[in-house]
Design brief:
single chain; mainly beta
Length: 126
């Protein structure tokens, strides 16, 4: 059974950092493109970052470039999102998702992903 579980969310002050983790069970993250998404009430789910399966190519939404870093830990079967210089507009529920297609390249589009975690809340506020 494929399962994704996010962790690491919380309350942080502007300028602070958080590290989110997406743990997978039932499949290897090495074989699938993984994306991180953010959703704010009343808005569509937004793609934040993704990492491809084979070559580890990464991509970022423009507003997080230089502040967020996505990495894969094959030994732990996790994909982490290191978030720095956080801003109030980074607030939202963060989801990780996996593309069911093996060895795929990542894209910043939610419709491409098939398996989703339950989300973790990130609140950036003073």
């Amino acid at each position: 059974q494929v399962q994704l579980v996010e962790s690491g969310g919380g309350l942080v002050q502007p300028g602070g950092s958080l590290r989110l983790s997406c743990a997978a069970s039932g499949f290897s993250l090495d074989d699938h493109a993984i994306g991180w998404f953010r959703q704010v009430p009343g808005k569509e789910r937004e793609a934040i970052s993704c990492i491809s399966s084979r070559d580890g190519r990464t991509d970022y939404e423009e507003s997080v470039k230089g502040r967020f870093t996505i990495t894969k830990n094959s030994a732990k079967n996790t994909v982490d999102l290191q978030m720095s210089s956080l801003k109030p507009e980074d607030t939202g529920v963060y989801y990780c998702a996996a593309d069911a297609l093996r060895f795929s390249l990542c894209v910043l589009r939610s419709g491409r992903y098939d398996f989703w975690g339950q989300g973790t809340q990130v609140t950036v506020s003073s």
